[in-house]
Design goal:
Number of helices of chain B: 2
Structural class of chain B: alpha+beta
Shape of chain A: globular
Helix content of chain B: 10-25%
Number of strands of chain B: 5
Number of domains of chain B: 1
Low-confidence stretches of chain B: none
Largest sheet of chain B: 5 strands, antiparallel
Organism (chain B): Nepenthes gracilis (Slender pitcher plant)
Helix content of chain A: 25-40%
Number of domains of chain A: 2
CATH topology of chain B: SH3 type barrels
Strand content of chain A: 25-35%
Largest sheet of chain A: 8 strands, antiparallel
Strand order of the largest sheet of chain A: 1-7-6-5-4-10-9-8
Radius of gyration of chain A: 28 Å
Distance between the termini of chain A: 48 Å
Number of helices of chain A: 6
CATH topology of the largest domain in chain A: PH-domain like
Pfam families (chain B): LSM
Oligomer: heterodimer
Order of helices and strands of chain A: EEEEEEEEEHEHHHHH
Protein name (chain B): Sm-like protein LSM2
Keywords (chain B): mRNA processing, mRNA splicing, Nucleus, Ribonucleoprotein, RNA-binding, Spliceosome
CATH class of chain B: Mainly Beta
Low-confidence stretches of chain A: 105-115, 161-171, 175-198
CATH architecture of the largest domain in chain A: Roll
Mean pLDDT of chain A: 75
Strand content of chain B: 35-45%
Structural class of chain A: alpha+beta
CATH architecture of chain B: Roll
Subcellular location (chain B): Nucleus
């Protein structure tokens, strides 16, 4: 899910270095732009940086402090645009909105902070807006196009895994439910159902567990069993 | 793919794109791709008081997954055609 901005400090090479990319997962460097300031939310601009646009994320690295850098995945960028109106921001820039996981209870607090010029402690995960200000404004249109291309490389993942999670937890709930019923008193009826449904180790383990429970009760539950058989 | 085809037909028309964060942007639809990412030109934010930073923006790229609604030009919709197409799509044809 959207995780917003994060710190980025993994650099390679000499001098201020370059960002370490995840080559093994096919991450490619698409564009480099030197002389770019970054503005996070309504914080003051941080200048003297270089942006690296990869097939997956935008990374800004400070040219002065090799420990300072930020990154945001294209997954988390809801919107990007070229901003040229000096009334909105003194310098032409790339403006981006960042999708963050809203924390309902803290929302008011963070909005209060954003309305003022914010110099408090930096909480990257709450930053909703980012501006990238190149010292050469003629690069803006090119940057915008690269942003577009890379955003298109990052469509929403198909939620296969999430689906599996759902099925799995539903199974588990069902199995738990059966077990509970079992311990109450219902014996052979549910038992058959459980075997009928079983697929995979998890269910098998549940079945064995239930068998054991049933065995214990078997000795002093003749009447119950007969009742149950009667219902079948 | 149905809505991708549909949106391609109304490129050049004015639409209002409403995002899941309640921001609504009016603009000329410049392009759309298969993920329903949307590029707008001549944009105006509908509620400028609430989103002053967006006032300066004249063109923008909106990630398809953050779009809640797209308000269409009333005469840009052939309802019969769209009905038929959605039925065909539902049948998997």
């Amino acid at each position: 899910m959207a995780i917003g901005l994060r710190h980025f400090a993994e650099r390679t090479g000499s001098g201020v270095g370059r960002p370490v990319l995840d080559d093994s997962d096919g991450e490619e460097l698409m564009h480099v732009q030197e002389g770019v300031s970054i503005v996070l939310g309504s914080r003051p601009a941080e200048s003297h940086g270089t942006i690296y646009i990869t097939s997956r994320q935008v990374i800004w690295l400070s040219d002065l402090d090799s420990n300072k850098g930020y990154a945001v995945d294209f997954f988390s960028i809801s919107l990007h645009a070229v901003s040229r109106d000096p009334l909105a921001y003194p310098s032409p820039c790339i403006y981006a909105q960042i999708d963050i996981e809203e924390d309902e209870c803290e929302e008011d607090e963070s909005e209060g902070l954003e309305s003022e010029f914010d110099t408090g402690p930096l909480e990257l995960s709450k930053i909703k807006e980012m501006r990238l200000v190149p010292s050469d404004p003629s690069q803006l249109d090119r940057l915008f196009e690269v942003f577009c291309e890379c955003a298109e490389l990052n469509p929403e993942p198909v939620d296969d895994e999430e689906d599996h999670d759902w099925v799995f937890s539903a199974d588990q709930m069902e199995a738990d439910g059966l077990e509970e019923e079992d311990s109450a008193w219902n014996l052979s009826g549910n038992h058959t159902d459980c075997i009928g449904h079983s697929n995979g180790h998890h269910d098998l383990a549940q079945t064995v567990l239930q068998l054991e429970i049933n065995d214990k009760r078997f000795e002093d539950a003749e009447e119950t069993e007969r009742d149950n058989n009667g219902h079948q | 793919m149905l809505f991708f085809s549909y949106f391609k037909e109304i490129v050049g028309r004015e639409v209002v794109v409403e995002l899941k964060n309640d921001l609504a942007i009016r603009g000329t639809l410049r392009s759309v791709d298969q993920y329903l990412n949307i590029k707008l030109e001549n944009t105006r934010v509908v509620d400028q008081d609430k989103y002053p930073h967006m006032m300066s923006v004249r063109n923008c790229f909106i990630r398809g997954s953050v779009v809640r609604y797209v308000q269409l030009p009333p005469d840009g919709v052939d309802i019969e055609l769209l009905h038929d197409a959605t039925r065909r799509e539902a049948r998997g044809g």
